[in-house]
Design the sequence.
């Protein structure tokens, strides 16, 4: 019988600890499939963040390093500068990348650091039980914006792709989503392209992935997917911001 | 005293701060203290206060620096990894002699470590942490009621001496619920804040808040002034609980939640004919050295029980000064010593 | 007298709030009480438990090494905690969800189909109250009156209309 579906080699045969309906797991699988398809498991090094995915170093078969909250791009820089032939990716949440780690991500991009950032935006702090994130939408209720996000108290959500695409060192910037099959396939393409760009030595690449947190959004998994479609995508438009036509 | 309420330690800290007149909170989420932020986010609007979720602990502590410079009663709270990030700011606040209160609901380290209870930040809190010859007052409550009372006191101490005052607890204290009785009114000791940067209104000379003194004579003078202040705090603000210390076979020393376990051990041991005393430092700095000197020759030995690899025990040894052996028993990584373990250690020492 | 209770099950079953109600009722009787929850990522979709102490004397450590009573709402928790119950203590299980019986023979065991009973009452969230009913009935740890008072204190005003039903659930548990 022909095998039509199997676990990518780059992903370990473990059950993940994420909540039911969380799309972090899908993103892990996409990264692993791309690593398999490009045949780069042996030279890939991933950097885990602080967030719900703090221990995703246990799930991948490539080498992995756990970083302090927000510092993954700096840690990735260190790894890459020691061995430029490695493929280095960071996996970061929106609190990790867009709050405490803003300086690190901006300057990794500014330097045109040849690493790839997989940025999982779920508009909330998942791990610490649902506080407001920089990416939290206007009026969204969280444990630290109990009356909803308001402009005069909390300011406005940050659009990371739009921000980073103003930097010359960032050569590939794309926003995707994993709320349905078509978008999952697109997300995989974007991750693959971002890795290829790094392998071609072009510069810094980031893929922002809109993702769910049913637990802290207080929604059923299916409703959470719909929330991405109805609420997040209108504010965070999908698509390529930079580097679509780069040769790899 | 008002009605008895059953409340979570973290929420009591926030409520106590509000009662003490704190209207400014800056913080960044981290387990196991985030309920403080949740409480503040809800309650600050009711008192026309300010709650800001900063982008990091580095930012939060510098917001505290600014708010304190502007003369406000201000609070930030975090847990170990976040407190590490605040160290630069704490050193600046100490150098600039600004009052503020910082809560550290300690978790296990090093690094990301774990979120369970620990006391492994004792050295960081009482010996420095940041750079320079500075001190903070460090208070270690062991019940929810004490968490309330010491948080209120912390604001008064901070204002009186223009010093950073830290409340140091652990996840047990932060997460547990116990009865708490709030006073009808808090004693808010008024402090002179004529040094605050509130705008001259063209009516006074300008105020300057700084920690830089390029001239070495001036910087030495500044340091001497700080040290004199610390001396005064040592004299006035040392707090300690001495329990069951008349003719004990052994004196155990423990702070925070560990002291509660020790109190249970004392009861059990009594039934077996072993008399254990307890010296519980409530202020970790200033350390109750005098109390140890007083009891140094009373028991056969001392035993320090801590949730770390042996930190406060160094201060106990300095205080006991070789007059009796000082032993140590500790657990790490979020493991809590059982009563039996502690009792076994006591028996081993007394054998 | 000191009663030490462990309540354990899955997150979302009202484990923590059951403990809190018990502690509140104890406090209203002027006893010394503590309530300590499990916390952190272990709660993500997984287990939840709390330690409750109700005592005539000041509470020492809020962490229990042993307990006088155990209330469990899932199988893994029974396995994890049954060894901690003192001889002569009480184990109460929700037999709708816990398929094994406790192995201990030196404690009083009560197996109550609480989730089934709650579902018959039309409100699954009463299962924890039914189990507490048995605990209160058997141990007299707090009075029914204090429990009713605690419900008033703990539940938000808009849920006070549920109190009569909650008390009915408590009594059903007592009488089972
Ligand atoms: C210095 C420091 N501050 C705070 C924390 C606590 N913390 C852990 S995860 C997290 C936020 C994670 O949110 P996000 O990056 O959006 O990831 P998610 O869990 O949503 O995937 C925080 C604040 C920490 N571990 N270290
Ligand atoms: S808390 Fe949210 S982000 Fe974290 S695992 Fe659960 S659903 Fe996913
Ligand atoms: Mg997030």
Sequence:
């Amino acid at each position: 019988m022909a095998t039509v579906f199997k676990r990518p080699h780059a992903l370990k045969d473990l059950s993940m600890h994420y909540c039911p309906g969380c799309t972090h797991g899908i993103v892990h699988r996409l990264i692993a499939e791309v690593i398999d398809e490009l045949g780069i498991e042996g030279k890939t090094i991933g950097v885990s963040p602080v967030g719900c995915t703090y221990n995703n170093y246990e799930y991948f078969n490539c080498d992995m390093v756990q970083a302090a909250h927000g510092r993954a791009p700096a840690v990735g820089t260190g790894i890459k500068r020691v061995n430029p032939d490695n493929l280095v990716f960071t996996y970061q949440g929106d609190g990790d990348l867009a709050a405490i780690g803003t300086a690190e991500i901006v300057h990794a991009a500014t330097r045109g650091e040849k690493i790839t950032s997989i940025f999982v935006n779920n508009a909330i702090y998942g791990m610490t039980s649902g506080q407001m994130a920089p990416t939290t939408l206007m009026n969204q209720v969280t444990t630290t914006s109990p009356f909803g996000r308001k402009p005069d108290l909390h300011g406005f959500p940050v659009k990371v792709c739009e921000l980073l695409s103003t930097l010359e060192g960032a050569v590939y910037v794309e926003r995707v989503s994993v709320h349905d099959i078509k978008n999952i396939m697109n997300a995989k393409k974007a991750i693959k392209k971002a890795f290829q760009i790094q392998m071609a030595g072009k510069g810094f690449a980031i893929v922002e992935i809109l993702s769910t947190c049913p637990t802290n959004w207080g929604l059923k998994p299916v409703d959470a997917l719909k929330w991405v479609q109805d609420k997040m995508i209108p504010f965070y438009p999908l698509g390529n911001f930079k580097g679509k036509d780069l040769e790899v | 005293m008002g009605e008895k309420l059953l409340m979570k330690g973290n929420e009591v800290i926030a409520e106590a701060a509000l009662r003490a007149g704190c209207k400014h909170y800056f913080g960044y989420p981290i387990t196991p203290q985030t309920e403080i932020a949740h409480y503040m986010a809800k309650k600050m609007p009711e008192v026309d206060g300010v709650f800001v979720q900063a982008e990091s602990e580095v930012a939060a502590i510098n917001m505290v620096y600014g708010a304190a410079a502007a003369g406000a009663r201000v609070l930030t709270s975090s847990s170990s990894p976040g407190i590490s990030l605040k160290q630069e700011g704490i050193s600046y606040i100490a150098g600039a002699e600004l009052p503020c209160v910082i809560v550290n609901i300690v978790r296990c380290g090093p690094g990301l470590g774990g979120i369970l209870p620990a006391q492994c930040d004792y050295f960081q809190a009482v010996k420095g942490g940041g750079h320079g010859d500075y001190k903070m007052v460090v208070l270690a409550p062991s019940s929810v009621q004490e968490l309330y009372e010491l948080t209120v006191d912390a604001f008064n101490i901070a204002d009186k001496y223009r010093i950073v005052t830290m409340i140091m607890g652990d996840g047990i204290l932060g997460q547990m619920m116990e009865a708490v009785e709030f006073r009808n009114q808090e004693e808010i000791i008024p402090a002179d804040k004529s040094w605050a940067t509130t705008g001259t209104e063209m009516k006074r000379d300008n105020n300057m808040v700084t920690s830089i003194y390029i001239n070495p004579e001036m910087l030495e003078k500044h340091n001497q002034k700080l040290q004199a202040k610390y001396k005064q705090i040592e004299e006035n603000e040392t707090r300690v609980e001495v329990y069951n210390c008349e003719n004990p076979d052994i004196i155990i020393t423990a702070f925070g939640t560990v002291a509660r376990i020790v109190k249970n051990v004392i009861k059990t041991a009594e039934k077996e004919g072993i008399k254990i005393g307890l010296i519980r430092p409530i202020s970790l700095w200033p350390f109750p050295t005098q109390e140890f000197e007083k009891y140094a020759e009373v028991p056969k030995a001392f035993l320090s029980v801590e949730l770390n690899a042996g930190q406060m025990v160094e201060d106990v040894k300095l205080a006991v000064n070789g007059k009796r052996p000082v032993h140590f028993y500790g657990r790490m990584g979020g493991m809590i010593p059982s009563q039996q373990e502690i009792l076994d250690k006591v028996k081993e020492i007394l054998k | 007298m000191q009663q030490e209770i462990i309540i354990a099950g899955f997150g979302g079953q009202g484990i923590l709030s059951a403990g809190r109600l018990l502690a509140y009722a104890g406090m209203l009787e002027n006893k010394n009480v503590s309530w300590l929850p499990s916390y952190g990522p272990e709660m993500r979709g997984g287990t939840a438990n709390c330690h409750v102490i109700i005592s005539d004397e000041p509470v020492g450590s809020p962490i229990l090494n042993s307990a006088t009573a155990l209330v469990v709402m899932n199988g893994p928790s029974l396995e994890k905690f049954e060894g901690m119950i003192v001889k002569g203590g009480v184990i109460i299980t929700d037999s709708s969800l816990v398929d094994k019986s406790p192995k201990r023979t030196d404690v009083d065991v009560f197996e109550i189909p609480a989730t089934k009973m709650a579902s018959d009452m039309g409100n699954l969230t009463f299962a924890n109250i039914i189990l507490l009913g048995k605990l209160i009935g058997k141990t007299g740890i707090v009075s029914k009156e204090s429990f009713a008072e605690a419900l008033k204190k703990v539940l938000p005003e808009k849920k006070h209309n549920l109190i009569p039903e909650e008390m009915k659930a408590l009594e059903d548990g007592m009488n089972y």
The two ends of chain A are 36 Å apart (CA to CA). The domain at 24-242 of chain A is CATH 3.40.50.970 (Rossmann fold).
